[in-house]
């Protein structure tokens, strides 16, 4: 029997790099998975993978969040797993960030997590009453603990997601709903490739290959992660094997944030 047999999952950003890997993994593990995103094609090409149900969802829209949960209620009556993986990154200091860009960052990364979670809770309570814990998995970042230069708004949103995760875990743990956040470091996604070409990378005229190698070298493990690495952790946190795991910020960064950077000078 697969680890997620009989469960229903919703993954926001489900057609992005990390989201697509999560959708495929949960589907292979036996869950019925809704991949929610702005478009079915998403930010990466559609590789051969597991089937899922596409659900068009702008996470910043309250009516669309309500409609998404109504569809799941009609088709399945419960929701066991919610993965809030939708997110954007703006590579600017606060001085260069417009108010519109600042608000957009918070709308997607923080308000989106709030809205989908808010309207998923009634369905997740029903799942919890069936005998297994329901699981919400938010997406923070190691940038919610420490900061990369030129990512001010992104860092602020991820710190907010970390605090929201703890609050949700305290509020809804008594209802059998576990809430955790995964905090990735450098993961090989379209967002990371955009960072390599943007001002935030501090490229200084280096080639993409040189920047990628420099990023690998700064990690104790001398590599950065893949979407499948994240999907592996999501799969465990979503499973009943993680029944006692809640309210935690799970850093997955190849040891990057464990080291004192000055020691590399």
UniProtKB/TrEMBL annotation:
Boundaries of every Ketoreductase domain copy: 7-185
Listed InterPro entries: KR_dom, NAD(P)-bd_dom_sf, Sc_DH/Rdtase_CS, SDR_fam
Source organism superkingdom: Bacteria
CDD domains named among the record's database cross-references: SDR_c
SUPFAM superfamilies with a match to the protein in the record: NAD(P)-binding Rossmann-fold domains (SSF51735)
Family: Belongs to the short-chain dehydrogenases/reductases (SDR) family.
Protein's UniProt name: SDR family oxidoreductase
Lineage of producing organism: Bacteria, Pseudomonadati, Pseudomonadota, Alphaproteobacteria, Rhodobacterales
